[in-house]
User: Fold this.
Amino acid sequence: MRGIVGLITMAMVALLLRSTALSTLAAKGLVLDVLAFATVVWAFRAGETWGSSFGFVIGLAADLDAAHWLGRHALLLSLMGYAVGRLSRTLVRDSARTQFVIILLATLVHQLWSAAFEFSGLAGWPYLALRVVVASAATAAAGTVLLGIVRRVLGQPLFGHAVLKSNTSS
Assistant:
């Protein structure tokens, strides 16, 4: 029950940020992809099952919020949540470098996926390519700094160590 409440709360916060504060930045040309960031953080925290569930829920809610095809964000974010959740078993999740690279790659994939639906001819590609690169770099930098601040405030690792199961009996 606690996991479901956390999932819904984080999805609501991400969607509110996307619709309010971050939309003004996007209007000025700086896109911070809160959907990809929240999916990566949740998948790091909870693994592939909850990561894909969170990606699907937040993606479906984002699709309902926007006026476009239903399932466009839900498909990619659920696959992203699964992939990052699987990777989180083997990565040092509290490393700032790891967080930066995973957030960068996830945002890049999500922005490319979104840009593919906005394609309006060859004249639009330079703008879309620049937007994808800027959004990926800005989201990765801001996300890594935010996770570092939260880690400092809490005074403990956010995600713990990768789950290593061994069958040794002593």
The radius of gyration is 17 Å. Residues 163-170 have pLDDT under 50 and may be disordered. The CA atoms of residues 105 and 136 lie 8 Å apart.
